[in-house]
Amino acid sequence: MPTTEDVGTPGAANKAIGGVPTLHYFDFVSRGRGQVIRLLWEDAGIAYKDVRYTFEEFGDYKGSKIAEMNPNATVPVVELN
To answer: What is the tens place of the pLDDT at every residue in 31-77?
Structure first.
């Protein structure tokens, strides 16, 4: 089961973009491409949901959930509404 964390409190910035976005990414010990998205959202005051997959879990979700959101079945994937 991927780990999910709610970051921040939804406010006016979330209302402006149409809700609370969800970021799907690997659970790295270090930072990767997903970190840029997180930093932009935090700087803009946008609350978001952070879903992180281990490498073992990603194989299970790649063919189903990730493929539904991204035809290439790669991450990071940003989901909004």
So the answer is: 677 888 999 999 999 999 999 988 888 888 888 888 899 999 888 89
Q: Please give the C-alpha separations between residue 65 and each of 7, 23, 31, 45, 61, in angstroms, as whole numbers.
A: 22, 13, 23, 28, 5
Q: What is the pTM of this model?
A: 0.85
Q: How many CA atoms lie within 13 A of 80 on its CB side?
A: 10
Q: Hey, is 13 helix, strand or coil?
A: helix
Q: Please work out, in degrees rounded to the nearest 5, the angle formed at the alpha carbon of residue 32 by the alpha carbons of 29 and 38.
A: 100
Q: What order do you get walking across the sheet with 48-53 strand by strand? A: 3-7, 48-53, 22-26, 77-79
Separation of alpha carbons 20 and 32, rounded Å: 21
Q: How many CB atoms lie within 10 A of CB 7?
A: 14
